[in-house]
Amino acid sequence: DIALPDRDGVRTPMQWDSSSTGGWSGADPDRFYLPVITDEVYGTRSVNVEDQIGDESSPLHALRSMIDHRPQAFGTAPFETIETGDDAVLAYARGRYSVVANFSPDQRTVAVESVEKITGPGAADGTTVVLPPFGWAWLVARA
Question: Which terminus of the chain has a smaller tally of CB atoms within 10 A, N or C?
Fold first, then answer.
């Protein structure tokens, strides 16, 4: 909730389910230290763990995949930038892993070496990555 002061906007109660308390507590939400998010876009009815568990394309699954691959993708391998031919697209590699990010409000397509997508809203077919506006993809080189 960006309307809250200081860092409280990222400290609102975890939204475990779609209930009025987000499944956080059985207490009256008015007694919570910070309010439960209730708006239509980010509120408990729209964004919650219970709904995302069964959705392979959810932010929850993307985050789990990132956590699983983080040690390899961001470990001790050398950092190398990758030329994309597009000033709006940043790409870099660490060992077998690559990150491609679109900083444009427009869809971008970039050529890549033989890769598989790990996570992210970008679509990879092995030789290209299609990135939605402000989209990204984590990739791993095919063995």
Answer: C
